[in-house]
């Protein structure tokens, strides 16, 4: 099957990955209400078709945090994404670099900051969680700065990890010791091309940035246990003020769903934020990002760069998010599906598909430049979602 869309890449990823890994990427927390809302609310937004507007020259180039990029898109931080293809984060970062868009490396990546730096030339972004061991956290920030990371995303919507039923059903969670390893090993054996590419050729598996603290422990259980014990749930706005003092470059707060929190982030000197519910993986039941975005853009759009993610599965969705007030959009699962299906080439192709879809959406809404995309191209956005009371 040749992929013609992000959803095709999802199907290819499902066929190629061991069951537990596909479920880990694809799933959301609890009953997955928010995960479904993210996708459904975007899909439900009708675009307003306009014709006869001379759309011969479409302008998709944009500028984020002082840097030009070819599309208003970035690759969101995704933990363990590197397990989906051999040295996966390196492949994705190279695809982003070739496409002229930023790649963001997660704290909990499979490849380290140094490994990604050695295999790329363009500066990438780094994502940070608040870690109890502030000394280790500062070391990570220093490494990121020395590697030339151009922006820092500070993710604030994971004081505690949400629970994902699918991970329990697949054997990724709740099956400790030999029982879990056998289950996952069996699932990997049923996917020989992944097992060869990642399991054998992708070695050594050192769990990226966590290698200094995990040492010889390289199992998935060690990794999740470290996350449970070391993410700091005492995180407050004071920590943001502290991180601001530690990071000189652009600082982006990720995981904002409420205008009051957006204003607090702006007041503390953040340069940008990501309207995000962690792809429906944290608090199930919160609104979709498409629903939350307009009020946040209204509250802080003049003061800071507003990014958004969640449920973006096509170039049309990118355009919808821009129309709702985002300056640019982050892709989460979309790039991981493409990476799992076909590595660097898959991510590069998926980005081409999205660009082509964006061009169609712009041409038939009569919008020549991405910077001109606004609510005028939408048919049915609720006014109360745009104008907070
Ligand atoms: C498997 C997986 C792992 C993730 N890991 C991280 C992470 O380490 N740090 C982070 O800030 N966000 C993480 N996210 C959230 C993404 O950055 C992004 O907010 C989300 O995927 C957007 O939704 P979408 O997948 O529907 O595009 C993760 C998402 C997924 C699907």
Q: Care to describe what's here?
A:
The chain is an alpha/beta fold. It contains 17 helices and 10 strands. The protein has helices at residues 6-16, 19-26, 33-43, 88-99, 113-118, 134-146, 165-170, 177-189, 192-200, 211-214, 220-230, 237-246, 259-267, 289-300, 315-323, 333-365, 383-386; strands at residues 62-64, 67-69, 73-75, 104-105, 125-128, 152-155, 251-256, 272-275, 305-308, 328-331. Strands 3-10-9-8-7-6-5-4 form an 8-stranded parallel sheet. Strands 1-2 form a two-stranded antiparallel ribbon. Helix 1 (6-16) packs antiparallel against helix 16, helix 4 packs parallel to helix 16 and helix 15 packs across helix 16. The longest helix is centred in the C-terminal third of the chain and has 33 residues, at 333-365. The N and C termini lie far apart (49 Å). The mean pLDDT is 95. The structure holds flavin mononucleotide. The site of flavin mononucleotide has 24 residues, from helix 2 and helix 16.
What is this structure, in a nutshell?
This protein has 389 residues and is of the alpha/beta class. The chain has helices spanning 6-16, 19-26, 33-43, 88-99, 113-118, 134-146, 165-170, 177-189, 192-200, 211-214, 220-230, 237-246, 259-267, 289-300, 315-323, 333-365, 383-386; strands at residues 62-64, 67-69, 73-75, 104-105, 125-128, 152-155, 251-256, 272-275, 305-308, 328-331.
């Amino acid at each position: 099957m040749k992929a013609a869309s992000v959803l095709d890449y999802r199907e290819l990823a499902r066929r190629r990955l061991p069951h537990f890994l596909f479920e880990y990427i694809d799933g959301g927390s609890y009953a997955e209400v928010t995960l479904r809302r993210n996708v459904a609310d975007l899909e439900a937004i009708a675009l307003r078709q306009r014709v006869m507007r001379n759309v011969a020259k479409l302008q998709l180039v944009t500028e984020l945090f002082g840097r030009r990029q070819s599309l208003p898109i970035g690759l969101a931080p995704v933990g363990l994404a590197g397990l989906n293809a051999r040295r996966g984060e390196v492949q994705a970062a190279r695809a982003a670099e070739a496409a002229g868009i930023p790649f963001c490396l997660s704290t909990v990546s499979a490849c380290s900051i140094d490994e990604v730096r050695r295999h790329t030339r363009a500066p990438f972004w780094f994502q940070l969680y608040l870690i109890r061991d502030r000394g280790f956290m500062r070391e990570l920030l220093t490494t990121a700065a020395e590697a030339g990371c151009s922006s820092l995303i500070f993710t604030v919507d994971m004081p505690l990890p949400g629970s994902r039923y699918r991970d329990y059903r697949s054997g990724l969670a709740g099956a400790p010791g030999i029982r879990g390893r056998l289950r996952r090993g069996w699932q990997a054996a049923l996917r020989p091309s992944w097992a060869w590419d990642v399991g054998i050729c992708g070695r050594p598996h050192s769990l990226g940035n966590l290698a200094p603290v995990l040492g010889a422990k390289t199992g998935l259980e060690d990794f999740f246990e470290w996350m449970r014990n070391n993410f700091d749930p005492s995180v407050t706005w004071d920590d943001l003020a502290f991180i601001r003092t530690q990071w000189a470059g652009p600082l982006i707060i990720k995981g904002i769903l409420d205008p009051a929190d957006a204003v607090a982030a702006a007041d503390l000197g953040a340069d940008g934020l990501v309207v995000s519910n962690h792809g429906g993986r944290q608090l199930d039941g919160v609104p979709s990002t498409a629903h939350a975005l307009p009020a946040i853009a209204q509250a802080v759009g003049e003061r800071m760069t507003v990014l958004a993610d969640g449920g973006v599965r096509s170039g049309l969705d990118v355009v919808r998010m821009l129309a709702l007030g985002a300056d640019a959009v982050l892709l989460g699962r979309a790039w991981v599906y493409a990476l799992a299906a076909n590595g660097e080439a898959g991510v590069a192709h998926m980005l081409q598909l999205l660009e082509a879809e964006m061009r169609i959406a712009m041409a038939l809404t009569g919008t020549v430049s991405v910077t001109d995309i606004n609510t005028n191209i939408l048919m049915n956005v609720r006014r109360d979602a745009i104008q907070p009371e």
